[in-house]
Amino acid sequence: MNPPATESTPRCRVLVVDDDKAFTRTMSDVLGSVFDVAVAHDAETALAQVAAFTPEVVLLDITLNDGVDGFEALARLRALDTPPEVIMLTGMTGPGPVVKAIKGGAFHYVMKDSNPGELANLINQAAERVTSRRRLAALEVQLRTLGGELIAHDPLMLRLMKDVERAAPTSATVLIVGESGTGKELVARRVHELSARARGPFVTLNCGGVSEARAESELFGHVKGAFAEAVAERDGCFARARGGTLFLDEVGRAPVPLQAMLLRVLESREYLPLGASAPIKMDFRVVASTSHDLVSMGDDGSFLKELLLRLNVFSVLLPPLRKRREDIVPLAQHFLDMFSTQMGRTGLTFSAAAARFLTRHEWRGNVRDLRNRIERAVILTANDQEVSVDVLTVTRFDQGVTMTTHAEAMDAAQMEYVSRLMHECDWNITQAAKVADLTREGLSRMVAKYGLKDGRV
Length: 457
Hints:
By secondary structure, the protein is an alpha/beta fold. The protein folds into 3 domains: 13-142, Rossmann fold, CATH 3.40.50.2300; 146-319, P-loop containing nucleotide triphosphate hydrolases (Rossmann fold, 3-Layer(aba) Sandwich), CATH 3.40.50.300; 323-449, Helicase, Ruva Protein, domain 3, CATH 1.10.8.60. Helix content is 46%, strand content 13%. It is built from 19 helices and 16 strands. Strands 2-1-3-4-5 form a 5-stranded parallel beta sheet, with helices on both faces. It has a 5-stranded parallel beta sheet with strand order 7-10-13-6-14. The protein is globular. Residues 1-9, 138-148 and 395-403 have low confidence and may be disordered.
C-alpha cells in the first residue's frame, strides 16, 4: 500500500458498503492504516454516511440484501450533486456485471479477494479523480464569483459588506437586490460562508427555470411511486439544502404557483415530499436575489406581497459597477490574473489608456460584462504585452458580450478607429489627419481624449 498521508495531506475518506459485517470489519482493519474508513451495511445507511462522512471513494458491494441492489445504489450515488467515485465489489465472475457497472458510472470493478495493495492503488487513483473534479469545480465557481472573494475597495461597497457580515451569522432571510451581472450570487455565497450553516450545502434554485408542471417535484422531491414516472425516490431542493442555505436566484421570475409554494413553506417551516405521509421540518436558510422591482410587481399582482414580506427581512441593495468606480480596476486586474493563469499567459498588463477606458466605461452589463471583456482581451493578447484599448472595445455583438448603450458603442468604435488610424500612420498626426479628413487639432484632441500615446494604447 501507499504510505500514510502526512499532516499536510488529508487522508482519503473511504466508505465500505456491504451487508457482510465480517467483510466490512476486515476491510476497515486492512485499509484503516492508510485511509479514513467508515462502513455501512445497506443502501440507505450508505447514502446517509455519504452526506455525513463525505467520502472521496465508496467501495460498494454489487449485492445488498435490503431490497436495493448495488447497481441501484450506484445510480443514486452518481446522481448526487458532488458524487464520490465508486468501486464495485463482487465475488461473481463474468463480463456482464463489469460492463453494467462501468456503464453505470463506476470508477472500477474488483473482486472481493483482490490484493489489498492493488485495491489501495485503485482507491488512490479514484480519490485523485475526485480531487481533480473538485479543483475544476472550484475554478468554475471562482470564475463565476470573482474567485470566491468579494473585491470591495469602493466605500459604498465596503459599507454594504459590513452590513452583510453583520447579518450573515443570524438566521434572518436575506433579499439581495441588484441589476443583472452585479454579483448577487457572490453576496449570497458570502452570507452562507459567514453563517453557522457554512459547512452545509449551498443549493441554488433558478426560479425562472422551473416550470409550473415540475415545480412541486423540484421543490419538495418525491418518494418512489408518487406518480407514474417516479421510479425512484428523488430529493427536491429543500432536502438538498438541508443543514445549509437555499439560494432563490431571481425569485422575481418565479411563476405565481411556485411563489405560493415557497410562501407556504416559509410560513409553516415544513414541507411534504410528493407521495410522503409525514411532513419534514424546514432545515435551511433562505437567501433570495432579484433584479426586478418586487414592490411594483406586488402592486400589479405578478408577485405575492406576502412572499415579499417573508423574504425582505434583511435586504441588500447591491450597487451597479458604474456606482462603485474604485472597484473597477481591482476587479479587472483580478480577472486578468485569473484568465492569464487559466490560459497560460504571462506578463500581461493594462496600458494606461486601457485603464482609463475601464474606469470611464459605463458597464451596463456590470461585473459580468467586465469579466467577458477581460477574458476576450487575454485571448487576443500575446505574452508580455499590454492589454490595449483595441481588444477591450468590442464592437461586434459576440456571444456572451453584454450590449451597451448607443452612445457607449459609438464612443468605443471611435476609440478603436483612432487607435488603428494612428497605428497605420506610424503616429504621424498630420498624415493621420489627412487620411481621416480631420483637422490636425481635432484629431489631436481625440488622441488626448483616449490616452493614445507613443504608438501604444
